[in-house]
Amino acid sequence: MAIRLTTTLNKISFIPNSTNSTIIKDFYEYMKANGTSENYQNQNIKAMIVFANFLGPDTNFFDIKSKQQIIAFLDTRIRNADIDPDKRWITTWNDYLWRIKYFLRWLHNHKDREQEGIEPLQQSDWTTPPFANIKKKKTKHISPYLESELWERDEILSIIKYEPHKRNKAALALLWDLNARPHEV
User: Fold this and answer.
1) Which of 9, 12, 175, 178 gets the most CB atoms within 10 Å of its CB?
2) What are the tens digits of pLDDT across the range 114-161?
């Protein structure tokens, strides 16, 4: 069962560092003001709560100045080969990485500037702090589909030919062109 946003927001008060708690609340307000979905807000806040708990009571987000501090947290997501032989932990590691990067970009390009009385940058002008420039891990995921199960161009064109609605024709062509799953378009 998924945790609701209200439940996640209530957990912010249990973060051992009050500065981090306040920063996460401000981050939530920023995301809410920008019209992001509740699910997006919830997932980002959950990740930041876990990160803040890892940092403990003596380190706040402004104290993070090295890649090693971030990588030490990310490496807690690594599972051994006995538990996770498919190395699915890599997806989790990468997910936490981009959420932390987004948060740190907000912190240093928006929150920092706001506190210093400087006009915050637009999100399109944000830069990633150098210590947060961590490369994501590459997965060695093998496709679960056999080569014979993948449609060729002529096969998709024959299917599109028999679809009566233009919208559906466009959607099928787009899915095939982008090599995408339905929820990715």
Assistant:
1) 12
2) 777 888 888 888 899 999 999 999 887 666 777 777 788 899 899 999
Residue 141 is predicted with a pLDDT of 66
Q: How far apart are CA 31 and CA 53, in angstroms?
A: 21
Alpha carbon distance 123, 31 (integer Å): 11
CA-nearest of 102, 85, 70, 76 to 142 is: 85
Sequence-distant (6+) residues with CB within 8 A of 88 are: 79
Instruction: Show the beta-strand stretches assigned E in the chain.
Output: none
| Helix 67-74, helix 38-55: angle, nearest 10 | 110
Tokens of 115: 């506190």
CA distances in angstroms from 22 to 18, 102, 161, listed in the order given = 6, 17, 57
Hey, is 56 helix, strand or coil?
coil
* 27 contacts 106 by C-beta, under 8 angstroms: yes
